[in-house]
Amino acid sequence: MASNPEFVRNVRSQMRPAKMVIAALIVAVLSLVLGFTLTHVSVPAAGPSGWGFGLLHLLFWLQALILAAGGGIACVNAIYKEKDHNTFDFQRVTRLSPLELALGKLFGAPAFLYFLCLCMVPIVIFAAVQGQQRFSFVIAAYAVLLVGSLAFQALCLLISLLTARGSHTTAIIGVLIILGLFSNIPSGLSYFFQVGSLSPFYAAQVSMQGDWTVHEPSAPWGDLEAIVAPSTVDELFGHTVRHVPVFLIVDALLAAWFLLATVRNIKRDPEQYELYSPLQSLGLVAFINLVLLAFVNWRSGPLIDIQAALLTANSGILGAVGLGLLRNRDRTRRLLRADKGGGESWINLAWPFPFFFIATAGAGLLVAGAATLSRGALSEWSPALAVFRSLFFAAWMLRDLQFLQWMVLRRGKRPLMMGVLYLTVFYVSVAILVYGVGIFRDADRVPFTAFFLPTPIYDLDQTAWMTRPAIWGAAFVAQWVTTGLLIYAQRNTILELGHPAAAKAVAATAE
Fold it and tell me: Is-contact 385 460, C-beta < 8 A?
């Protein structure tokens, strides 16, 4: 970093001697005030010396707030402010590699906040000594703090790159909401996923641990009351492990994924942004599903409900990945005009169907296979029906994404936003009509709603299948037929972009 011009520029602008001296004095005064106050108030005894442990916990919580919230906002401003001042284009054309530019901003934007945390180290050491806490836990807490903050800052830097003018305040509010949601995992999710917090605020809890021994949970994982309190252990593929190494590995991998997206796009024009390549998108989907399946509590309920919950989680993941795979008119036109003449291959004409089918079907089948292996043969569980539900889920996702891709290729202002609006109106209108005529109240007619809505597949079990197998099958086929029609319409639009005369000939032949 010492030879990175972007990092050096950020450090020189933030770390001025007078500013550093004033910040150090303020931190010292506040630390003394906190220490003095905690010695005169009633603090629950959490160790040999209650107030020392209380001060240690408070200091790590404050450092997490500084690095996560403050550092996140600094990273959101890192690229957006350059765009707003019309200086980012000059940075993009420098001789810095995309990785050097991204790392310079990632570590340079919050440099002053790291200095503030460094100023707190003496009082942290004092609190650890006063509380008779082993320094191995202090070091582990700092490792959790730094890795967790780095992951969140990498996400904020990516958001800064993608933030358009006029939406800066919205981006800051969004990152603060994300930080708040991940600071404490709701009890319902803790009951369903056997993993602790992945937020940098978990460092405060690590600083107060008493030993490194891996203990079995005092109550079974299915006991909700035992899961509400933050746990220091996780259950990874059925094995009890410490949460600290899990935290470090998962957050480091998340930081790498966020940084990869930033490095891929930081020197591109906004019209050419592509978060991940198709193969990288498949890898991201596989990684997230692996994490979900590693910590899911298969004993938290019926397998059919667990599969439905995992498919619902995948709908958000795959939806975000799918939106990143969409191609606009300019990019499609460049592919059609490629020198090698491969722009009009069936993969490009049907994009993003090939890769997105592999992603959606693979994720669904992975969930179905893991559920089958976790509990074995059960009377209420049918592997064949689980596969059918997974493919139905893939068909529904493909249909909507293919519609959005077709809309993006059409002429008009903000075609993606209009496509999302049309889908929203369609789903809301169908849901109101279906609810109004009382179809959901009649189990015999629920399969008919699968032609229009994805929700019935979550209730599809052996009984529902035996009631109307032909209707379920017809609804499944209808999704693929609709997707095929959208691909055909998209093909004509793409041909019109590249060869208007050829497109007119195709249309005349069809007539």
Answer: yes
